[in-house]
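Dear colleague,

Thank you for sharing your sequence with our group. We've completed the structure prediction you requested, and as agreed, I am returning the results in plain text so they can be pasted directly into your records. Please verify that the sequence below matches your submission; if there's any discrepancy, let me know and we will rerun it promptly.
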Amino acid sequence: MPVDEDKIVKKMVAEIVDSNEKFMSHPQDIENFKRIVPVLLEKGIDNVNLSMFDEVTKSKLLNALGEEYIRRGSMNDSVKAFILAGNRQRLVEVGEHYEEVGLFGNAIDTYRLADSNDKLLIIGKKCLENGHFADAIKSFRLCNDVESLTKVGEAQACGNRRQMPQGKADWIRCKSI
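Please find the predicted structure tokens below.
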């Protein structure tokens, strides 16, 4: 079932991005929403109904809401707002923030929602190098990077979290430990 959920989420994000793509290239005027954003924040992103607005206004409101959530430190709610707005670039930036503070699992989830395979590969390699094998596996599985998944298995088999076996000599030393 998780595979079907991933496909559904990716399709929804792709559809939203496609419908809002032309609006995302223009700078957004957050000043116009100073009155409504506090009300939306009070209601919470999960309880907001923006169906009365056209797509352009809805996108701008959701982006303004996401920016305010970031300003207040509520990263999970900002991710929800940016998903609804279809703002992949801001999702990647939120993922980078998660990565900077060491929340690799959250960063991987955010990169997945942004459909950023390049970022998933980079964070997967970083997790592998630092011994965060579960996060590395999660990242590489999302990218379908079988070669890197094999490296995770080799590192786990060796039991050496600091250094990957590079060649046959390292494997012999690894097996003898």
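Summary note from our side: The chain has ten helices and no strands.

Kind regards,
the structure core
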